[in-house]
Amino acid sequence: MQDKVPTGLDRKETEVYRHLDRGRLPKHIAIIMDGNGRWAKRRHLPRVAGHRAGVAAVRSTVETAARIGIPALTLYAFSEENWKKRPQSEVGFLMGLLSRYLKAEVPTLNKNNIRLEYIGRQHELPTEVQERMDWAREATARNSGMVLTLALNYSARSELVDAFRSIVNAAAQNGGLDHLHIDEDTVGRHLYTRHLPDPDLVVRTSGEMRLSNFLLWQLAYAEIYVTPTLWPDFRGLHLLEGIAEYQKRERRYGGLNHSDAHPEHSSLATKS
Question: What is the DSSP string of 160-181?
Fold first, then answer.
C-alpha cells in the first residue's frame, strides 16, 4: 500500500514522489544555488533581476522539502567571496533582498513548521540585517519540523579556521594546551553545523562542477547531483528529481558494493 502523498504537491511533483522510496529520503540536503547572473543575462536584464527571481525558487524548494519530510535543508545563499568580490551595489541589493525575504517568509515558514538557522560569519553583516536575522530565527524557534539553514557570509575554509580557534580557546580554558586532543569528533563539535547531520546529498544548479568552498568537511561522503537548471528556474520538482537520482546510487562510505563483497559471483573469480 502506497504512502499518502503529502498535501501541497502539484501533479508533476506527485508523479515523481510516488516513485521515491520514502524510507530512503536524505536526512540533510545542501544546495549550491547558482546561475542567477546567467539567468538575468540571457534575458538582457540586470544581475539583480536574477537574484530577485531566485526568491521564488527558494520558496518552492523549501516548501517541497518540508512537505515530504526532509529533516534538514541548507542553502548556500551568500558566500564570503561574494561579500568581498562583488560590486558594492550588488552586495547592498542582496542584503536588502535578504531582509525583505525574511520578513515576508516567516509566516510561510511557521505555516510549514520550519525552524530557521544560519551558518557563516554573521557578525560581519550589516547590523540591521543581523537584527532581522535574529528576529526571524526567534519567530520560528518553536517549530519542530524541518531545519532550514541559510549559509550567509559563509566560507568552508573560514569555518575550519573558526573551528580550530574554538578548539584551542576551549582547551586553554580547560586545563591548557598540554591536554588538547583533536579527532574528527572534536572538530565536528566546533563546526557551524554541529547541530546538524552531515548532508547526504548536495545539489548544484547551473551545471557547474565544483563545490565552491561550501561545507568541505561535511560533504566528504555526500552524493553530488548537478543539474543544468539555473537557480531562478529551479523548483520543488527539480529537488524531487535530484532525490530520485540520489536513490539510484549505492552509498558505500569507502566499503565494497554487493558484487565486490561476493567475488564468487564475478566472472573473474577462481573456480574450484
Answer: HHHHHHHHHHHHHTTT-GGG--
Element (H, E) at 2: none
Q: Which of 82, 162, 213, 233 is catalytic?
A: 82
The answer to whether residues 237 and 62 touch, using CB atoms and an 8 Å cutoff, is no
Question: Pick from 50, 10, 57, 18: which is nearest to 203 by CA?
Answer: 57
In tens, the pLDDT along 204-219 reads 999 999 999 999 999 9
Output the nine-digit C-alpha cell for 256: 565494497
Rounded Cα–Cα distance for residues 61 and 57 (Å): 6
Residue with cell 562583488: 86
Residue 178 and residue 75: Cα distance in Å, rounded? 39
Domains and CATH numbers, the chain: 24-155+200-248 (3.40.1180.10)
Give yes or no: 34 in active site. Answer: yes
Dihedrals phi, psi of 52, to nearest 5 degrees: -65, -40
pLDDT tens profile 130-188: 999 999 999 999 999 999 999 999 999 999 999 999 999 988 887 777 778 889 999 99
Per-residue pLDDT tens digits for 15-32:
999 999 999 999 999 999
pTM above 0.70, yes or no: yes
Long-range contacts of 161-170 (CB under 8 A, 24+ apart): 162/121, 162/190, 162/192, 163/187, 163/190, 163/191, 164/190, 166/190
Torsion-angle region of 206 (φ positive above 0: left; ψ -120 to 50: alpha; else: beta): left
* Beta carbons of 80 and 125 less than 8 angstroms apart: no
Q: Cell digits for 156?
A: 568552508
Q: Is 213 a catalytic residue?
A: no
Question: Out of 3, 10, 21, 34, which one is annotated catalytic?
Answer: 34
Buried b / exposed e over 34-67, threshold 16 CB at 10 Å, is bbbbbbbeeeeeebbbbbbbbbebbbbbbbbbbb
